[in-house]
């Protein structure tokens, strides 16, 4: 009895898909306007092969962004988030910024062809990690409690992605270490619990400055 060739064809197809997605991440990571022809050439496949796996450019961009987010999420899962939530958030932000800066052009490509809801859906994993850390910081008294967690998570994402776009567009030119420090400080300033209000003038003991 002759063995079925289907497993072989399936393995070949999976390898072809992997090459195409890897090429898409590489090309779109440097040029968000890269065409499917550019990507097919980088992957070493023909247009018919590419379109056999991805019917539209949007489908291919979706796969590329999904792969980048999944790889990034695995990297962030390895960040030590134990102990003080403020310092844990600092460590998470440093790693997050490195990943966001690396994929800024790819995200721009995705925002150009994918619905906003789909881009948010793909980032649910990283957003959930930030949200859990924000909630823990509230319990520890180091993060503010006067704004919804969902809003604070959204602000964190906007700062990271906004800074990456400014860098990509050439409007923000700083050394990598300075950029990371600036982004981290900006986010922590938003999240930090405001200082407790001091005594009113009427409550200030005589002879003590306010």
Automatic annotation (TrEMBL):
<dbReference type="InterPro" id="IPR050109">
    <property type="entry name" value="HTH-type_TetR-like_transc_reg"/>
</dbReference>
<dbReference type="InterPro" id="IPR009057">
    <property type="entry name" value="Homeodomain-like_sf"/>
</dbReference>
<keyword id="KW-0805">Transcription regulation</keyword>
<protein>
    <recommendedName>
        <fullName>HTH tetR-type domain-containing protein</fullName>
    </recommendedName>
</protein>
<feature type="domain" description="HTH tetR-type">
    <location>
        <begin position="14"/>
        <end position="72"/>
    </location>
</feature>
<dbReference type="InterPro" id="IPR036271">
    <property type="entry name" value="Tet_transcr_reg_TetR-rel_C_sf"/>
</dbReference>
<keyword id="KW-0804">Transcription</keyword>
<dbReference type="Pfam" id="PF00440">
    <property type="entry name" value="TetR_N"/>
</dbReference>
<keyword id="KW-0238">DNA-binding</keyword>
<feature type="DNA-binding region" description="H-T-H motif">
    <location>
        <begin position="35"/>
        <end position="54"/>
    </location>
</feature>
<dbReference type="InterPro" id="IPR001647">
    <property type="entry name" value="HTH_TetR"/>
</dbReference>
